[in-house]
From TrEMBL:
<feature type="domain" description="Glycoside hydrolase family 5">
    <location>
        <begin position="28"/>
        <end position="356"/>
    </location>
</feature>
<dbReference type="InterPro" id="IPR045053">
    <property type="entry name" value="MAN-like"/>
</dbReference>
<feature type="signal peptide">
    <location>
        <begin position="1"/>
        <end position="25"/>
    </location>
</feature>
<keyword id="KW-0732">Signal</keyword>
<dbReference type="InterPro" id="IPR001547">
    <property type="entry name" value="Glyco_hydro_5"/>
</dbReference>
<dbReference type="GO" id="GO:0000272">
    <property type="term" value="P:polysaccharide catabolic process"/>
</dbReference>
<dbReference type="InterPro" id="IPR017853">
    <property type="entry name" value="GH"/>
</dbReference>
<dbReference type="GO" id="GO:0016985">
    <property type="term" value="F:mannan endo-1,4-beta-mannosidase activity"/>
</dbReference>
<protein>
    <recommendedName>
        <fullName>mannan endo-1,4-beta-mannosidase</fullName>
        <ecNumber>3.2.1.78</ecNumber>
    </recommendedName>
</protein>
<dbReference type="GO" id="GO:0005576">
    <property type="term" value="C:extracellular region"/>
</dbReference>
<keyword id="KW-0378">Hydrolase</keyword>
<comment type="similarity">
    <text>Belongs to the glycosyl hydrolase 5 (cellulase A) family.</text>
</comment>
<keyword id="KW-0964">Secreted</keyword>
<dbReference type="Pfam" id="PF26410">
    <property type="entry name" value="GH5_mannosidase"/>
</dbReference>
<keyword id="KW-0326">Glycosidase</keyword>
Length: 421
């Protein structure tokens, strides 16, 4: 009876919200239609996780079991999306040690991550550069250009200097056209990859008007799509608003605008991050949860009513250095319930990915936000329960699509029989 109730509920959604299940080729690429992600013709809802460390760890073949273990644990808990880095610029064990020069061993680590994700039926979001100095970031690109005689004085020259932009475009092309050494599939042709991300949390504080980042996103989105039309693209935004909705921000601006940045052609879905413990330091847990509720609902409504695009809560978390397990569990429940409320009502929220999933034995990557599912049974239970709820919604749409396919096939067969008579 429970499943029949869900089926009836979804049928009401289809009728009332104009959600249609189109029968089309099952090619495995995630697409968008209106405010929904679509996989093989059916709406796709899924929770996920961040694990930036995967390429780095997998570049050492003796440590690859940790990547496999993380994917296995994630799958057991209903997680279906993994976000990780496709960059490591300069410094120790880089992917790109200088502009256009790549470390094959590190690339093979990323090959393994993608091939292993496929085994566990997990879709991957790959970020292409960092806003911060960790793993090189925009500062490393600017330093490379400075070393070649370019007149650059700020990290934010990353967004405007033509040489730096050329370096970055070359990285886009190199990653997208990479042929996986394990599967033989070029990244741009691999449906295991759900989406590309232009930058992890882009910020340009030197131009709070937002014009610099708007122009950069426009240029880079167009360039990336000229190489790869198969995959979705998102910016990597935290969700801060520009002047049009500044009061919604947690007391600062970073030169981005959730609305205008996501309206750029080529940007397929929106993202929002949520770290009330960082953004509202010294505030009470109740105040942080109140902010979180408003922050998420504002972005979900704006994605639905203004952008007309899906939205993924691409990062959220609460540090155990600043809180306890009970407080963190409350935050997770708040995020997940907000997402499910939107998704189950035909809204724009499609899932949430917490920061960060770790495998056992990776103590060097602990940052206070880490979750090792086997060591955190209370939060693991919440993650599993909430992800299974989204999974049931996803599966119900898939069943309804199969019914639609069967009806279509029967109609075609019936017409054929009538013509034969």
């Amino acid at each position: 009876m429970k499943h029949l109730g869900v089926a009836f509920f979804v049928l009401l959604l289809i009728q009332n919200y104009g959600i249609f299940l189109h029968v089309e080729a099952d090619n495995g690429f995630v697409k968008t239609k209106g405010v929904q992600l679509i996989l093989n013709g059916s709406p796709y809802y899924a929770n996920g996780f961040n694990a930036y460390w995967m390429m780095y760890v997998a570049s050492d073949s003796s440590q690859r079991d940790k990547v496999s273990s993380a994917f296995q644990d994630a799958t057991k808990h209903g997680l279906r999306i993994a976000r990780t880095w496709a960059f490591s610029d300069g410094g120790y064990r880089p992917l790109q040690d200088s502009p256009g020069s790549y470390n094959e061993q590190m690339f093979q680590g990323l090959d393994f991550v993608i091939s292993e994700a496929k085994k566990y039926d997990i879709k991957v979001v790959l970020s292409l550069v960092n806003n911060y100095e960790n793993f090189g970031g925009k500062k490393q690109y600017v330093d490379w250009a400075k070393g070649q005689g370019q007149s650059v004085t700020s990290e934010d020259d990353f967004f405007t200097n033509s040489v730096v932009k050329g370096y970055y475009k070359n990285h886009i092309k190199t990653v997208l056209t990479r042929r996986n050494s394990l599967t033989g599939i070029a990244y741009k042709d691999d449906p295991t990859i759900m989406a590309w991300e232009l930058m992890n949390e882009p910020r340009c504080p030197s131009d709070k008007s937002g014009k610099t980042i708007q122009a950069w996103i426009t240029e880079m989105a167009s360039y990336l799509k000229s190489i790869d039309r198969n995959h979705l693209l998102e910016v990597g935004l935290e969700g801060f608003y520009g002047a049009s909705k500044q009061p919604s921000n947690p007391n600062f601006q970073v030169g981005t605008d959730f609305i205008t940045n996501n309206q750029i052609p080529g940007i397929d879905f929106a993202t929002v991050h949520a770290y009330p413990d960082q953004w509202l330091p010294g505030s009470s847990d109740e105040d942080q949860l109140s902010f979180l509720n408003s922050w998420l609902n504002d972005h979900i409504q704006d994605a639905q009513k203004i952008l007309h695009k899906p939205i993924l809560v691409a990062e959220f978390g609460k540090s155990l250095k600043l809180s306890n397990n009970t407080q963190r569990t409350k935050l997770f429940k708040t995020v997940y319930s907000t997402i499910y409320s939107s998704a189950s009502g035909g809204g724009a929220a499609v899932g949430g990915s917490f920061w960060q999933l770790l495998a056992a034995g990776l103590d060097n990557f602990r940052d206070g936000y880490e979750i090792i599912l086997s060591e955190n049974p209370s939060i693991a239970s919440v993650i599993a329960q909430e992800s299974q709820k989204l999974g049931r919604l996803r599966k119900m749409y898939a069943r309804l699509r199969n019914i639609e396919k069967w009806k279509r096939a029967r109609e075609i067969k019936s017409r054929g029989n009538n013509n034969g008579n």
